[in-house]
Amino acid sequence: ECYIATQKRVEEVSAQITQCQVAKQQELAATHAAQAAILQAAIDRLQTKNRELSQHVVLEQIEHKKTKETLKETRRHFSHFIGEVPGFDTEFFKTSHYPPR
What we know:
Distance between the termini: 98 Å
Radius of gyration: 38 Å
Number of strands: 0
Order of helices and strands: HH
């Protein structure tokens, strides 16, 4: 009779251990899922920011090219006035680059 009671108690404790293990596994799974969601949201934000910055770089490159071309055109347009401006550094004007190298 004592053996049967002890066996029953062992089964009860084993069932409690199993329930605790299942609960812990569920808790860990939920924690991992929450962490994964947080990380994915951070990745999404970084990818969006990266796309925005990439677009900005492209626009800056286009603007830089336009500015460079405008400066070249301005130099060509006004090159015939160079000799008429007293004290103007004509050599610098002819050899300078945009942006300065």
